[in-house]
Hints:
By secondary structure, the protein is an alpha/beta fold. It is built from six helices and seven strands, in the order H-H-H-E-H-E-H-E-E-H-E-E-E. The termini are far apart.
Amino acid sequence: MAVVRRSHRSTKDRSLDHLLNxxxxxxxxxxxxxxxxxxxxxxxxxxxxxxxxxxxxxxQALALVGDEHVLHVGVGAGYVTAxxxxxxxxxxxxxxxxxxxxxxxxxxxxxxYDGITLACGDAERGSAEHGPYDAILVSERMDALxxxxxxxxxxxxxxxxxxRDRLVRATKRSETELVFTDLGPAPVEEGx
Length: 192
């Protein structure tokens, strides 16, 4: 008679393991990013696997070390903001949609995320009153890098943004020099 051994791990745990393995197979290798993704629950944010991969890709491109002041533009449901809050000293987050901004604020607060200042604001103008920022993540697709965001970035800081159909990181080398790195194609569908 064969003995069937059942794992004591929950379906949720196995699903998370599968997601993390999938992310690693797709090039997400920053252990801090993977750890933060494993802690932030996807369900309250309705974050699907494809959305999680794109979020991880963009967050990893910021190369955060933990002490940065981060601006997140385009908060949406708040998933990316929650992950960023675990990887930085403080996240200033803005969304142009008042309903999304308010919903994200309630959701993040109810889940106990702190180190986040969230407001409704213009994506292209950023949030100068809280800057300068060490890193800026723009979740909205844009045709060009807004000059106001560049001005709000510290020297040595990074902006990760989708410009048209490409994911790009711009590193501010000096007050007058930006170095662009093409990180590959960006998917048509957006989410955060």
